[in-house]
Amino acid sequence: MSKTVDKLPECDELKNEWETEQFLMEQTRLDKAAELLKIDRATYEPMRHPKRCYTVTVPLRQDDGRVRTYVGYRVHHDIALGPAKGGIRFHKNTNLGEMAAMAMLMTWKCAIMDLPFGGAHGGICLDPSSLSPQELERITRRYTSEIISLIGPDTDVPGPDLNTNQQTMAWMMDTYSVNVGHSVPSVVTGKPRSIGGSLGLLEATGHGVAFCARKLAEHQNHASKSPTIVIQGMGQVGAAVASILSEAGFTVLGVSDSRGGIYNKKGLDLTKVHAHQQAGGQLSDYKDAQQVSNEELLELECDILAPCAVPYVIHKDNATKLNCKMLVEGANAPVTVEADAILADRGIVVFPDIVANASGVTAGYFEWVQGLMQLFWTEQEVYSRLDKLVDKACQRTFQRAGEKKTDLRTAAISLAVERLFEARKVRGLYP
User: Fold this and answer.
1) CATH T-level fold of 17-182
2) What is the pLDDT of residues 229-256, one digit of tens each?
3) Is the pLDDT of residue 9 over 50?
4) Class (C level, CATH) for 202-347
């Protein structure tokens, strides 16, 4: 006897593994931008989903001889503009939805910065602090070999992200090169200078965030000659933002790391703070400032707040408590959709991550180009080119927001979607 087969669900009813809260939040922002552009849902539906999601098993032979297995990912969101480009992260909470969300953000960054790349992201679900340097090398090389069919200088160009660095990229480049039989510098970006890395790349993201903070203050006609700023996160990006803006005349009131922060209402002496850290000290034991928690730091009164650490630190529960006039997103997605609405109602202007921290991928593009040409630029040339592209993206975002009477994030995403939509239109639909 044959069984009755239930009707299969329509495509719109299907739920996918990548549809996590993080990814759905980025979809919501895309929907808002598409509504602004008056693009119908069927036309931009492909942009609401990743083009491809790759999940791999990554076995690791530990130092004690035992084998432990991890899960790795590589996601391509859209490649209409060119090869995929995006980071590699090692974190214990990494999942497919996070990778898809980060890949979508990378698509918008590349599009608004006029780069010939699409968006990608990847990584391994692991706690890197639990592995020895030798184990990190082995798992990086095995992960690279597992995704080797996706990556390449003409197909997908990874770069460093959370808990990965120049050494990680060197291992990835070497693994790829060994497999193809010759050196391929442009298979990754963020490499050490000795094997094709670009000058200025390490500081590029912080440089861009600081540049956007100055542009936002100018655009908002901020009257103070020395705007005050609070920076959450004193990693590579946050530390660069603090130093650059301090030199530009900003007053840095507070900074923090994962353990907590410090605050001085008259301004911190960053020279002393850096000296304290270089001597092995932590912010939590710095004496010439008031100790605050990371939550308290976000609520300090200031002109500009720059979250430069982890995603989603500003949400519906603390957005009402912020005491800044402007917010510049140094981290990826530090503000949730609900918080965006609350901040807008309170008149707090948010400068979006897809422009503010896009200098990292832009400098990565410069490294890719230099590797293909085998012709390297000076640091001055790198920053001159970078400033021109960031300034152009800022001005276009301000202009679109004014013309459409919308927030800066929606304006920026709409510009990116517009470019992507045009590329898809002229390329057509195959077959």
Assistant:
1) Rossmann fold (3.40.50)
2) 999 999 899 999 999 999 999 999 999 9
3) no
4) alpha beta
